[in-house]
Every structure is written in C-alpha cells, then in structure tokens.
Amino acid sequence: MSEYKLKEYLLTIEEAWLQFKEKFLQKKEDLAEILSESMFVSGYENLFAEGMRTYLKKRYKRAIYYFEKASKEKRDNFNCLYNLALSYQADGNFNSAINCYQEALKQKSNDYDTIYNLGLCYLNEHQGEPAEKYLKIALDKDKTNAEVKMSYILALIECGRIDDAIECTIEVVKSNKTYLDYTLTVAKQIEEMSFGEKDNETISKVIKLLNSYLKINDQNSTAHLQTSICYGKIGNWDMALKHSLLALELDPKSFKTNNHTALVLYCSHNYEEALKYYEKALFLNPIKNFDTHYNIALTYEKLGQHENLMQKANYILKHFKKHPQINAVRNLIKNNQEEKSTKKI
C-alpha cells in the first residue's frame, strides 16, 4: 500500500471514530441533562432559573424551552425576553431572536446590549440596512469597543458601502495598530462578495487595502494569500503567483495555499507545475476534497494524460457520489471517451 493510500485509509478510520465518539458523547450528555432536571418545574422564578442554568451550559434549545414557558408566566418581562432572544441567537435562530429583541426594546428602548445584539442578528441574516442602523447606535454609545467597530464595518459592506467600510477600517487601524488584522477580515469579506468584471474596481480597492497592511506586516501568509486571491479575480496571474509563493514561503504546509497556488498556475497554463502543487495539497489533506481531486482531473486533461484522468474521475465518482457537482465529473468522463473514440476513427 502506498504512503498516500495508507494515510488516506488511516484518516478515514480516524474520521469515522471521531464522528461516532461525538454522537455518543452528545447522546450521553442529553440523557444526563434530562435525568438531572425536574419534570415539574413551574413558576416564573424556577423556569427563569432553569433557563439561565441550561443557557450557561450551552444547552440553548432547552434554555429556549424554559424561557418561553417563563415568558408566558410573566409577559412583557424585559429580562426574560432578552435572555430568550440571547438563546435564540446562540442557537442560530436569528429571525426569532430579532423578534424577541424588538419586544425587549419596547420595555427598555435604550438598552445597549439589546441594540448591539439586534444589529448582530440582522447582520447574520444579511439584512444590511437594519444591521447598520442598530450597530451605529451601539457604536455611538461605545466608541472604543473593537468588536462593535468591526461589526459596524461588516454592516457597511453588507449595505454595499465599500468605500465607507475601507475608510472606517483605515481609521480604526490608524487609531490603534492592535486592530491591524481587521484589515484582513474586511478584505476577505469584500472579496467574497465581489464577482465578475463589474467588481474589478472594488477588488482593486481591496488590493490597495491589503498592500497597506503588507507594508506594516509582510510576514503574514494569510495576507499574501488573500492578496493573491484578489489579483486572481482581476486576472493578474503574475502578481497572484508572486503573492501565493510568498504565502507558501511563510506557511509551506498550508493545504489552502498549496491548493490556491496550483489554481493560479493552472490559470496561467502552467499545468505541470499546477499538478505538483495540487498533489502536495492533496497529500496534506486527502479526505473529502472534491474540488482538488476534480482540478487534478482537469489538469490531467490539459496535459493529455487520459489514463490518469479516467483513474482520477472514477475515484471521484466512487468517493463523492452525493456531491452537487458530480455531474461535471460524469461529463468529463463522457467527453474523454468520445475524444478517444474520435481518435480511433
């Protein structure tokens, strides 16, 4: 068995064991939680206390259950509404959290935590305008809070106010260099929202922002990688390769950076070098990387290595049956077979 196959086999076993262990421990914890609780909890004070206890233990669904029952016992109670909203938010149910925070604000219209968390929930729901509105109020109340500043900047991005977001980021970094890494968060957020030629101007602004970061700290592999991704988006493959290689110098064992470097080389039509980096990326992380396997197959196609292409494509069909892009692999096999048939004729 080859080193790669052995590593893949061992990782598969380890992954299966960890999944089983996680499910077992979760079931055990659920059972212990149920057995430890009284079946007859009643009354606002007891229900609220149970809600707080289960919330602090990160049992958010059970906390929601108790806070909902408590809110029926004592309607329009700010503390109950706020903690119910907090539980919904922690559980990822942002719409329900928004409704509860709005109800809580009717009781305390000026409560800072409620306003801030409401803004965060709107942000998580990608509702830029209300997110910006409430986070701006929170920021006005606490101008020194770094987390609020970052959330407000992200809301500006969500609203499409890219220039304002970049300007705000630069101001924050100038005021305190400890916030320098905000630059990377903002750059990544804007880059991920930008697609196609119409966003080239936006990406160019992000590149300027990243270059301002690199002038202060050029030893950050993430910054170089993000800069490479941005250059790739505007088709400047030379600069994309330069920064991806710089990122690799700083973090040679990064799957993401090796994989991206391979993509840059592929788009630069340097297929043999691309294949080397794809294979290295795959060695670093062989499990469940459909895109890397598929890109290797495409690279084999460009190199005219049809036997390797078919072998890789069949491997993908076997191990990624339910992947949403699996039909692309079937089409790749079909096209390869048709090409071979044409050559024989």
**CATH topology grouping of the domain at 211-278:** Serine Threonine Protein Phosphatase 5, Tetratricopeptide repeat
Structural class: mainly alpha
Output mean pLDDT.
Answer: 87
* Distance linking N and C termini: 39 Å
Return the string of H and E elements: HHHHHHHHHHHHHHHHHH
For the secondary structure, the number of strands is 0
Q: Rg to the nearest angstrom? A: 26 Å
**Fraction of residues in β-strands:** under 5%
Question: Helix content range of the residues, please?
Answer: over 70%
Q: For the record, what is the CATH homologous superfamily label of the domain at 211-278?
A: Tetratricopeptide repeat domain
In terms of quaternary structure, the protein is single chain
Outline of the structure:
This protein is mainly α and 345 residues long. The protein is built from 18 helices and no strands. Among the domains are: 68 residues, Serine Threonine Protein Phosphatase 5, Tetratricopeptide repeat; 50 residues.
